[in-house]
Design brief:
- It is built from 3 helices and 9 strands; from the N terminus they run αβββββββββαα.
- By secondary structure, it is of the alpha+beta class.
- Strands 1, 3, 4, 7 and 9 form a 5-stranded antiparallel beta sheet that branches. It has a 4-stranded antiparallel beta sheet with strand order 2-8-5-6.
- The longest helix has 69 residues.
- The protein starts with a helix and ends with a helix.
- 13% of the residues are buried.
Length: 217
């Protein structure tokens, strides 16, 4: 029973971590970055909408024409996976080539250096099979409902396998870091002990020389 609960909790965690929707406020010349932990060979789809603050209406409205949004995506090795300017509303996609923390940075293409407006950005990031449009896939490949459901299940199993491989990779990295830290602590303790012994030996020699000079011994 405990094993079943762990599996269910793991699947729920994958569903929660595979989709995130939020909105945030930035200035026209500001940049906002997010970190997403993504397994290797996983497709990511981000949908966004940018609104600008209208002082007269005291609310956020659709942006005027000409305002674009630039998206930069870098992998864990700081290699650029995506660098492109999009419209004020749309979507961007990329596929990870390695497991780890991917950095997604967003900023507008506004050149207003003074008095720039306030922007509200709605962002929805879908990872793995959640990024697939299964209605479009069904129409393209002419799949019936059962075939489409099987396709979804296969994609989910594949994504779970990737997540498990990524978790094993993280555990391996954590183990290596722990072993390296423990080894450094051990050598630091040995170095401290050696320094204390040398200092004690030097103090004893110094005191002996002092006592002999004073003819106390």
């Amino acid at each position: 029973m405990d094993r079943l609960q762990q599996i269910i909790a793991f699947i729920l965690l994958i569903y929660i971590s595979s989709a995130s929707a939020l909105y945030f406020h930035i200035g026209e010349t500001e940049k906002k970055c997010f970190i997403e932990e993504i397994p290797e060979e996983t497709m990511v789809v981000g949908r966004y909408k940018v609104e600008v603050f209208d002082k007269s209406a005291n609310s956020y409205i659709k942006t005027k024409g000409g305002l674009g949004f630039h998206v930069d995506v870098k992998d864990p090795e700081e290699k650029t996976l995506l660098s492109r300017t999009y419209a004020a509303e749309g979507r961007f996609t990329f596929t990870s080539h390695s497991s780890g923390e991917h950095t997604v940075c967003l900023h507008s293409n506004s050149s207003a250096w003074f008095g720039g407006g306030q922007l509200r950005v709605h962002l929805d990031v879908q990872v793995g099979e959640h990024a697939n449009d299964y209605q479009q896939i069904a129409a393209k490949d002419k799949l019936n409902e059962l075939q489409l459901r099987v396709r979804q299940l296969l994609d989910q199993v594949e994504q779970i396998t990737k997540e498990q491989n990524y978790q094993r990779y993280r555990e391996e990295r954590f183990r290596q870091t722990s072993e390296s830290t423990n080894q450094r602590v051990l050598w630091w303790s040995i170095a401290q002990t050696v320094i204390l012994l040398i200092t004690g030996f030097w103090q004893m020699r110094h005191l002996k020389s002092f006592f002999e000079a004073k003819k106390l011994v």
